[in-house]
């Protein structure tokens, strides 16, 4: 979308506009994107990135990249680096980069302050006891027997927790709020837990780690964040977010919650994506079947298409499922403008044109991209032997089959009318060759006698065509709601076994030097890009980014 066009105003943007109008935070807008470096970013994160960076950009504000690294066991530098790369690829640059672990000392000091103010205590209850004492919706909570420890005892125990005197899980530091609060998150939530684990940045300095709620708001506050945008499941954490900053008397960012991006046929839980990678169900985080940004990039999805998708999805307060067809539409919109149309036969069958002189050939000029200005052309050889798609021929065709049949006629794109006279089969009965004739009078795609053909098919010259591996991708989950797993079924059993099909195609000569990442439309077959990992010079491997139409969407409507 060009900048002059007006962007739709969603409820988050309305709140921000009001705050600016009221000079809240001196009219500043400062957001952050706070991923946990425990996996690769996926489509859902793209929505959050576009929103956070978008808010900053639209209002002359700032957006930080903050790694929310408070779970040492699961986090890693590999993820940190991939996140930086993905955010940049999506087209955004952060003003400052921070890690929650940058604040471990400050958070510790603030915890001490809360203890001194009688607002936090060290608790020895086990996980089970904590759960039991917390109560439930209609069930009163009970105070922990450790709730009334003296400030001195709490200070001593907390320091000893930090010094490593206790084992994992032996104690927690808890906020002293209200064991009968309606909001469960306010029933003395844990602030620190003991984990004797090495952290990817702080090493073995710490064996106590702050919980999400204790780390998040304080990190926002330290960075001067004004609007802390997060997903709806944190709505009932907001009172706790507010409580901490109020107790500490520090800058108070406003938490605003929006609905998560959920896409049909697409599973976006990092935990499950990790399982797919670690269990070898896919070839890695950037396997083009994955919904990660690195996979989509490798598959050929332009960053521009993702930004436009996020914009069209919009920001709401209500959970809903977005149709994958919308993403595909956005991808096609971008690629339609930018790609050259190439002729590639995915499942070739040979055609011998018997009335075309042996040893002769001719050059056909073909337009690269009808959407581009100025139009450029390239040359394709046409001769006696060509390949067409096996599916463009039927021996016993029904009436409505408008492609090639025995006795029937079809138009070859950029060439002549072609008529099939006979088929040659191998011993197993499989058709291996079509015997055809062409009409030399139809070079312009029309017959001088006015006779019509209904179908136009693509082809490549047998003399010039090159073999290439082409990977055809489909949805990884056939069920529309990938989180809807029937009782007793392992969600991994729902993986679509046909999500990847590899074929040996015949590509036209012009594609031989295609560079990794280059994108094309293969006419009638979809948009493709040269795989950046497995291609060799002179030996490109192609990934199908998206088909020209959604086959499964059509099937659904039937
Ligand atoms: P997951 O549930 O996939 O593990 P997460 O929320 O734990 O995701 P984080 O790394 O904590 O992953 O997320 C960073 C930011 O991205 C958070 O602000 C989070 O709200 C946002 N985010 C994550 N998933 C989505 C989604 N599906 N739609 C919109 N925003 C999302
Ligand atoms: Mg998270």
Describe the protein in words.
By secondary structure, the protein is α/β, with parallel strands linked by helices. The chain has three domains: 3-260, HUPs (Rossmann fold); 270-340 and 468-557, Ribosomal Protein L25, Chain P, CATH 2.40.240; 344-458, Ribosomal Protein L25, Chain P. The protein contains 13 helices and 27 strands. The chain has helices at 11-21, 43-58, 77-89, 104-116, 127-134, 151-162, 212-222, 238-248, 270-278, 293-299, 303-313, 324-338, 551-557, and strands at residues 30-33, 62-67, 97-99, 120-123, 172-175, 190-194, 208-210, 227-231, 254-258, 340-342, 344-345, 348-353, 361-367, 377-383, 385-389, 393-394, 404-405, 409-412, 417-425, 431-439, 456-457, 460-461, 466-473, 500-507, 519-522, 526-530, 542-546. The strands form seven sheets. Strands 10-25-26-27-23-24-11 form a seven-stranded mixed β-sheet, covered by helices on one side. The protein has a seven-stranded mixed β-sheet with strand order 21-18-19-20-12-15-22, with no helix packed on it. Adenosine-5'-triphosphate binds at residues 34-36, 44-45, 47-48, 68, 230-231, 260-261, 268-270.
């Amino acid at each position: 979308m060009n900048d002059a066009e007006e962007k739709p105003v969603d409820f988050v943007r309305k709140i921000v506009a009001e705050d600016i109008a009221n000079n809240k935070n001196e009219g500043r807008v400062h957001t952050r994107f706070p991923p946990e470096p425990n996996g690769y970013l996926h489509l859902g994160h793209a929505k959050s990135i576009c929103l956070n960076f978008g808010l900053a950009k639209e209002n002359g504000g700032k957006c930080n990249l903050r790694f929310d690294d408070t779970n040492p066991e699961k986090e890693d530098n590999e993820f940190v680096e991939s996140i930086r790369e993905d955010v940049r690829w999506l087209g955004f640059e952060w003003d400052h980069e921070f890690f929650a672990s940058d604040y471990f000392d400050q958070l510790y000091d603030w915890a001490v302050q809360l203890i001194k103010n009688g607002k936090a205590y060290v608790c020895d209850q086990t996980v089970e006891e904590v759960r039991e004492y917390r109560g439930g919706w209609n069930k009163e909570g009970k105070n922990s027997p450790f709730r009334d420890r003296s400030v001195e005892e709490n200070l001593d125990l907390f320091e000893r927790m930090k010094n490593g005197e206790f084992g994992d899980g032996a104690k927690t530091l808890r906020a002293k709020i209200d064991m009968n609060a309606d909001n469960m998150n306010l029933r003395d939530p844990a602030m620190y837990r003991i984990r004797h684990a090495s952290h990817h940045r702080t090493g073995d300095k710490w064996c106590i780690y702050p919980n999400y709620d204790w780390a998040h708001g304080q990190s926002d506050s330290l960075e001067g964040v004004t609007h802390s945008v997060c997903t709806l499941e944190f709505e009932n954490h907001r009172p706790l977010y507010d409580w901490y900053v109020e107790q500490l008397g520090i800058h108070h960012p406003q938490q605003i919650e929006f609905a998560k991006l959920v896409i049909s046929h697409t599973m976006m839980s990092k935990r499950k994506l990790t399982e797919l990678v670690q269990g070898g169900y896919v070839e890695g985080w950037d396997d083009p079947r994955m919904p990660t940004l690195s996979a989509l990039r490798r598959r050929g999805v332009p960053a521009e298409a993702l930004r436009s998708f996020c914009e069209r999805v919009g920001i709401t307060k209500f959970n809903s499922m977005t149709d994958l067809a919308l993403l595909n539409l956005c991808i096609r919109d971008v690629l339609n403008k930018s790609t050259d149309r190439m002729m590639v036969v995915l499942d070739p069958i040979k055609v011998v044109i018997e009335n075309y002189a042996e040893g002769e050939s001719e050059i056909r000029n073909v337009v690269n991209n009808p959407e581009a200005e100025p139009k450029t052309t390239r040359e394709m050889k046409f001769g006696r032997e060509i390949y067409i798609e096996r599916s463009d021929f039927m021996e016993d065709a029904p009436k409505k089959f408008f492609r090639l049949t025995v006795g029937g006629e079809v138009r070859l794109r950029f060439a002549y009318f072609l008529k099939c006279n006979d088929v040659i089969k191998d011993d197993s009965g499989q058709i291996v060759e079509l015997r055809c004739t062409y009409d030399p009078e139809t070079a312009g795609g029309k017959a001088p006698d006015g006779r019509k053909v209904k179908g136009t098919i693509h082809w490549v010259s047998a003399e010039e065509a090159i073999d290439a591996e082409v990977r055809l991708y489909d949805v990884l989950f056939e069920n529309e709601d990938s989180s809807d797993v029937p009782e007793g079924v392992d969600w991994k059993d729902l993986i679509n076994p046909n999500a990847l099909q590899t074929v040996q195609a015949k590509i036209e000569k012009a594609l031989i030097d295609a560079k990794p990442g280059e994108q094309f439309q293969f006419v009638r077959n979809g948009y493709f890009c040269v795989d950046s990992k497995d291609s060799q010079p002179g030996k490109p491997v192609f990934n199908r980014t998206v088909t020209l139409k959604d086959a499964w969407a059509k099937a659904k409507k039937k």
